[in-house]
Amino acid sequence: IREAQTDNGTEWTMQLLVKDPNSRTLFEQALEDMDIIYHRIRVATPRHNGKRYSIYGDSEEDIDTQLLVIEASIKSKTHTEESGMALKDWLTLWLERYAKSNVRFPTYLNYKGAIENHIIPQIGYISLRSLDGSKLQKFFNDKSKGGRKDGGEGGK
User: Fold this and answer.
1) How far is residue 121's CA from residue 88's CA, in Å, rounded to a whole number?
2) By mean pLDDT, which of 76-85, 88-97, 126-135 is the weakest?
3) 39-65 as b/e: b if 16+ CB within 10 A
4) CA distances from 73 to 40, 42, 69, 78, 141 (A)
5) Which pTM was predicted?
6) Cα dihedral sign for 55, 61, 62, 64?
7) C-beta neighbour count of 71 within 10 angstroms
8) Which residue has the higher pLDDT, 64 or 94?
9) Three-state DSSP class for 40?
10) How far apart are alpha carbons 45 and 59 in whole angstroms?
């Protein structure tokens, strides 16, 4: 066994019980002693629709971001099992919830401009579930040919 993954239940971790983040259960210590990589996931159940969602990620930040996306799409009534959240909704959420507080303000404004003026008008309607490499490549190809919002020639 090279890796193990559990939820954040108290049988696996003491994270929810103690204030010291360095405290470990016997299970966590045993994995560490055997050089087994340990991933803890947070299983989330948004109460808005009664459905259970399992969210996986490489970090707690990844999991929190995914949870925010699901909760926001449920609240805004854009979440459907068939189509998924639209890219424009996810980008708007990411911009406000992540980028705004994690990058310098000029960088945030650059991201916002690119998202609002280029990405959303062209591919913002696409659901995250159906967004794939070929759609992204077409978007990049189109932008490299003439990336101005008004369709004019770009500067060199």
Assistant:
1) 9
2) 76-85
3) ebbbeeebeeeeeeeebeeeeeeebbb
4) 25, 19, 6, 5, 30
5) 0.46
6) positive
7) 17
8) 94
9) strand
10) 18
- The DSSP 8-state label assigned to residue 152 in this structure reads P
Q: Are 119 and 113 in contact (CB under 8 A)?
A: no
- Per-chain mean pLDDT for the chain: 75
Buried b (16+ CB within 10 A) or exposed e, 83-116: ebbbbbbbbbbbbeeebeeeeeeeebeebbeebb
- DSSP assignment of 1-27: --EEEE-S-TTT--TTT-S-TT---HH
Q: Is the pLDDT of residue 147 over 50?
A: yes
pLDDT for the residue numbered 47:
45
The conformational region for residue 24 under phi > 0 = left, psi -120 to 50 = alpha, else beta, is beta
